Every structure is written in structure tokens, then in C-alpha cells.
């Protein structure tokens, strides 16, 4: 790492001029965290691999559109898009002609799905009870539990640890492990062997969304899916974000199911089959249609893409939403009279935060309250930045 292999992720940046292979997150590449600016796309990069595009984040959708345009200018550049079978047709239509398709055989056995609609109004309590019920069966195998948010993961982790103390020792020990972005590089400990001299030990991995694609845990036999997620949705009428609980998509539910790697794997869905069929959308809604696009427009301005129509999106935002983002940037003095980035706007584009927060940090220098504003910015962006 740092030699032939470079890495730029949220919790570290290890790059070198001699690197032949780079591993970056979409967010890092989007904001030039030692990657987008240091890598010379026109003559150095030969292959770009976009993984986990099913997540449909703003960063991945933007990169897909920009790289599609780059491949037109550089025919020798190879763009590899990794997706699930359910999104294959959509990406083929977007990338147009000349696309080769390589299908990789998945696991032969499909886990059994058991619908178990909970009567409890508290999803954390219902999930905790299901973990204990599975453990009391006495059959071997680790458990992967999907919850809606980081707060629910922390609550459930604490509840399982308390309840595990009252279980019969003959069942073996129960060890909960929270998979959270805020854990940083320490999250790699899930791959390290755990020492236990008292007998059998069952791991319970608790996550909310990052375990759907980011981890390969071979010992998983049971998957417990609460079927909900916590998302931040921008309301353009009031120009504010709202945090809402919403059902996951059918595609995401199926993706969670196959995380049970054992031949006799089981997926317990803590909702009814009718809820799955009628309440869940087929695919995950793209985040580019749900977020405040001021930050995206600021980046496009920095990339000298003045006309938003020049950027090809898999799902194009409504024109009025883009115009509102321009109005917000103009109000923050990020644009000059000609609609280009002002000096303040250029500085704001270097800060990987929402424009409102980056402008507040700059204004704090004038009013000599930088420390206080940094604290507020950390509180407002903690979950986004993983700190």
C-alpha cells in the first residue's frame, strides 16, 4: 500500500506517483481527495472500475455520466461498471452501443426466505428478539442483522450484549459486532479470528446499509432484515432536509437475502409478504432526485461544465431543482455577475461539505468564531463524513 497500490478513502489517503492501481471511493474521486486532481485522466488511466453503482448515490451517478463522456474522447479507456442483474438493462441503455456484458455466476443455493411480521412497534426490540430466538435454536452459523440507521445499530448492539448475559452457557457465547462507517479502519477487525476458550461463539454483525455490498462474510447463515432505512430527503419547497423512515426496495431486499452464504441459509424478513409486494419499490430511488443539488452544481461549475445539459445523468434532475441550486449559490456569493464561480465560490468548492456549511466556515474567519463553527459543522455532518 502506498507503492504500487494507492488508496483514498474516508479514513485515509495513501497515494504515490509510482502507483499502478488505485482504490478510491466515489466521494473521494468526486471531490479530488488526492485522486481526481492528482491522476491525469487523459494519458495515465487505462481502466476505471465503478463498483456498487446500484447504490445510486449522487457521486456514483455523476461519475458514471462524466466517465461516459470521457470514454467518447478516449476510445482506449476501458470503463467497467459492476452492477446486479436487475439493473443490467438500465445501464446498457444508458451506456448505449458497443458495451460488452460479462455475467458472473452467483451462489448456486438461494437462501430460504421466512416472513415474520413483528407485532412490536419498535424495530430494534423486534430485531433483538429475533436474534435471541435464532441463537436459542442452537444451530451453528453467524447472524447478519440489517437495521434502519446507525442509532438503531448502536441500540440493538447494547441490547444484545445485555440479553446475552442471561442465556444458557450451553448455547455458546453471543458476540455482537457493529459494522459502522464511523469505525474507520478498525472495522477490518471483523475479518480477524476471535479468541474464545469457553466453547462455541456466534457472531452477530449489525449494520444498516454498508454490509449489503461492502463486506463478504463467509460464515453468515442467518440474515435478519427489518425492511426499513433512514434517508435524508430534500424538500425544495421549504429548502430544507427531512429525515424520514422509508421501506427499502425489492432489489435491496433480495441483495440482503443472498448475504446468507451457507448452503442452508435463512433470511428472516421482519415484515409481511404483502408489504414486500405492495409497499416496496422495485429498485432503489436515485439519490440525485432526493438531495439538495447545490453541492453538485458547485462541483460542476468547478469542472467548467457551465451548462448542466452537457452532463449526462442516468436520471436527470428537474430543471427547476437545478435552477434553485444556482439561486442558492448566488445567494451565498459563490457566483459572480456572469454566473461563473467567484473567488469565494472557488474556495467553497475545495471544501467537501454542503455550500451553506462551507460558506459559514469562511464567514467564521471574519467573525473570529472558527472553533465554534467547526464544532457545529462536525455535528451537522458527522454521519455523512463518518466521524
TrEMBL record:
KW Disulfide bond (keyword) present: no
Pfam family name, one: WHD_HA2
Keyword Hydrolase tagged: yes
Organism, scientific name: Pelobates cultripes
GO molecular function: ATP binding; helicase activity; RNA binding
Entry's Gene Ontology cellular component terms: spliceosomal complex
Protein name as catalogued: ATP-dependent RNA helicase DQX1
Domain Helicase-associated: from-to ranges: 324-387
SMART domains cross-referenced by the UniProt entry: HA2
Stored InterPro entries: HA2_WH (IPR048333), Helicase-assoc_dom (IPR007502), P-loop_NTPase (IPR027417)
Keywords: ATP-binding, Helicase, Hydrolase, Nucleotide-binding
Amino acid at each position: 500500500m502506498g507503492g504500487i497500490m494507492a488508496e483514498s478513502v474516508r479514513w485515509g489517503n495513501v497515494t504515490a506517483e509510482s502507483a499502478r492501481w488505485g482504490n478510491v471511493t466515489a466521494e473521494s474521486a468526486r471531490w479530488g481527495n488526492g485522486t481526481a486532481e492528482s491522476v491525469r485522466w487523459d494519458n495515465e488511466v487505462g481502466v476505471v472500475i465503478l463498483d456498487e453503482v446500484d447504490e445510486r448515490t449522487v457521486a456514483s451517478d455523476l461519475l458514471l455520466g462524466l466517465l461516459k463522456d470521457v470514454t467518447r474522447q478516449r476510445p482506449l479507456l476501458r470503463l467497467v461498471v459492476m452492477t446486479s442483474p436487475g439493473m443490467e438493462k438500465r445501464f446498457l441503455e444508458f451506456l448505449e452501443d458497443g458495451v460488452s456484458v460479462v455475467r458472473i455466476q452467483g451462489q448456486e443455493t438461494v437462501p430460504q426466505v421466512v416472513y415474520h411480521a413483528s407485532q412490536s412497534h419498535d424495530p430494534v426490540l423486534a430485531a433483538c428478539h429475533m436474534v435471541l430466538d435464532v441463537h436459542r435454536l442452537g444451530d451453528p452459523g453467524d447472524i447478519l442483522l440489517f437495521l434502519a440507521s446507525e442509532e438503531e445499530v448502536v441500540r440493538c448492539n447494547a441490547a444484545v450484549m445485555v440479553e446475552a448475559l442471561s442465556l444458557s452457557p450451553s448455547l455458546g457465547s453471543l458476540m455482537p459486532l457493529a459494522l459502522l462507517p464511523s469505525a474507520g479502519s478498525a472495522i477490518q477487525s471483523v475479518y480477524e479470528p476471535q479468541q474464545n476458550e469457553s466453547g462455541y461463539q456466534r457472531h452477530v454483525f449489525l449494520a444498516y446499509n454498508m454490509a449489503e455490498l461492502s463486506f463478504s462474510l463467509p460464515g453468515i447463515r442467518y440474515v435478519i432484515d427489518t425492511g426499513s432505512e433512514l434517508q435524508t430527503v430534500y424538500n425544495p419547497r421549504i429548502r430544507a432536509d427531512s429525515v424520514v423512515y422509508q421501506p427499502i426496495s425489492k432489489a435491496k431486499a433480495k441483495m440482503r437475502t443472498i448475504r446468507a452464504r451457507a448452503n442452508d441459509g435463512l433470511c428472516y424478513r421482519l415484515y409481511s409478504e404483502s408489504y414486500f409486494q405492495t409497499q416496496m419499490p422495485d429498485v432503489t430511488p436515485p439519490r440525485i432526485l432526493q438531495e439538495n443539488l447545490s453541492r453538485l452544481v458547485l462541483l460542476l461549475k468547478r469542472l467548467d461544465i457551465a451548462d448542466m445539459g452537457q452532463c449526462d445523468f442516468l436520471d436527470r434532475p428537474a430543471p427547476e431543482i437545478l435552477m434553485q441550486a444556482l439561486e442558492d449559490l448566488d445567494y451565498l456569493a459563490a457566483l459572480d455577475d456572469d454566473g461563473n464561480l467567484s473567488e469565494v465560490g472557488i474556495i467553497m468548492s475545495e471544501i467537501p461539505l454542503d455550500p451553506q456549511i462551507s460558506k459559514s466556515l469562511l464567514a467564521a474567519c471574519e467573525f473570529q468564531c472558527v472553533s465554534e463553527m467547526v464544532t457545529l459543522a462536525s455535528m451537522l455532518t458527522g454521519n455523512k463524513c463518518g466521524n
